[in-house]
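#struct-pred

JT: dropping the chains for the assembly here, can someone run the whole complex?
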Amino acid sequence: MMADLHRLVAEITAEMSAAAVRGRVADYIPELAKVSPDHFGMVVITADGREVAGGDADMDFSIQSISKLFSLVEALSRDADAVWARVGREPSGSAFNSIVQLEAEGGRPRNPFINAGAIAVTDLVAAGEDSRAGIGAILRLVRDLAGDDSIASDGAVAYSEAATGHRNAALAHFMKAHGTIDGPVDTTLSTYFHQCAIAMSCRQLARAGRFLMNGGIDPATGHCIVSPERARRIAALMLSCGHYDASGEFAFQVGLPAKSGVGGGILAIAPGRASIAVWSPGLSPQGNSLLGTAALERLAHGMGWSVFNPDC
Ligand code: GLU
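RK: done, full complex below.
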């Protein structure tokens, strides 16, 4: 199985690195527009602890919305009832930054992975404190999970997003008007922009996802990060909501719980089998990595990894 995995990762890396059609790099955050679309990296960590890497596996990129997974874990560990009192658990079928649905539904975001839902979750982590407290807590969690204290938020990306994040500001103010968020909007947004600006490599990200392939226990430390039930539920949300209005298509093509970000990264979980991170900055029209998705499709089919596969 390991020989197959090594060969498959090498084949996928060669294919994706040479692909002519690579998607469009996000340019609505000016700092992200500077990243070359030529990159491709992937890391697969298996349940027995082996790491198989390809391409730009150790190059940092902006994790963007993949951070929503970590802020959700942090908020759930503080007060799960408060999380579910303010955000739903339904796929949105709308763009990641849609305003219209939030207004139609009285200021309650559909799920924690669209921008509005993530801002509402981050507000619970920031809890009206100095904005450094919230981002500090999220960074501590990510560093612990990845086993790497060097992971940091990229100040230039956070500044770039804050300077242009008018839609996110609109969502936050609208939710404040509805009582969906408690804290000062500026503090919550600053925390959100800094969490999105966390820079990680595929290797660090795949390590940070290990607890989800392993029923909530970090296999590197033996620490219980979340209960088995919560790990299953987070995976359910990743599958149903992790790719915005392309979540159904991703479940259809790949069949694994995963969370994407507009930096071009995707963290995917094959429960009991592997934690997988891929990165290629060019995006589909829905804001998901084009080649990252194609790579996961090839990997999942090649290894027979799918939550819908009885043998997985
Ligand atoms: N920071 C991005 C935003 O709020 C996150 C979007 C994404 O990665 O999908 O627009």
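JT: nice. The first strand starts at residue 24 and ends at 25. Residues 61 and 199 are 5 Å apart (CA to CA).
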